[in-house]
Design brief:
Shape: globular
Organism: Algoriphagus marincola
Protein name: ATP-binding protein
Helix content: 40-55%
InterPro entries: NAD_biosynth-regulator, NadR/Ttd14_AAA_dom, P-loop_NTPase
Distance between the termini: 19 Å
Number of strands: 5
Order of helices and strands: EHEHHEHHEHEH
GO molecular function, one term: ATP binding
Strand order of the largest sheet: 2-3-1-4-5
Keywords: ATP-binding, Nucleotide-binding
Length: 176
């Protein structure tokens, strides 16, 4: 059985990650992994807490691994544990050891870093609409992409430009 190439779509809130992951999945006729946190947080009847981030992390990993079994060539991941790392460090000043260990073990074949050039779309689960915070988180995610040692590219522009550039990158990156 061939192991699918895992392509991570990474970036701050409201930067089109889910849209890009879904569009790529449709184009390549492959599965995409939605953000487990959305489902988890929408079921909570309270504010999320530090320990919830570990449950979200475990749910994200399990969902990604489950959908990898259904992928042939590519698996498009709407997010990964870097998001948990960033939120945990930003909000609580610490990251659970399980998340750190998993981050060191999980491999992605390409990271598509979504830019903040799309307009903010309000959503009850989003927390930081101001431009300075969007830039702050973009810088942080870019630093994590660089530190990952995985190939990565920043994806900017409107929906169609992002999709076109991403398809081109994927096709050229995996043409060997």
């Amino acid at each position: 059985m061939q192991i699918p190439r895992r392509i991570l779509i990474l970036g701050p809130e409201s930067t089109g990650k889910s849209t890009l992951a879904s569009d790529l999945a449709v184009h390549f006729e492959e599965p995409w992994v939605p953000e487990f946190a959305r489902e988890y947080l929408s079921m909570l009847d309270r504010e999320y807490e530090y320990q919830d981030l570990l449950q979200i992390a475990k749910g994200q990993v399990a969902l990604e691994d489950e959908l990898a079994q259904k992928a042939q060539k590519f698996l498009f991941c709407d997010t990964d544990l870097r998001v948990i790392q960033v939120w945990s460090e930003h909000k609580y000043g610490r990251v659970h050891d399980w998340v750190k260990t998993e981050l060191d073990q999980r491999v992605y074949d390409l990271i598509l870093l979504t830019d903040i050039d799309l307009p903010w779309e309000p959503d009850p689960l989003r927390e930081h609409p101001d431009p300075e915070m969007r830039q702050y988180f973009l810088d942080w995610y870019q630093k994590l992409a660089v530190q990952s040692d995985f190939p990565w590219e920043k994806i900017s522009g409107n929906r169609s430009k992002r999709l076109e550039k991403s398809i081109d990158l994927i096709e050229s990156h995996f043409s060997q």
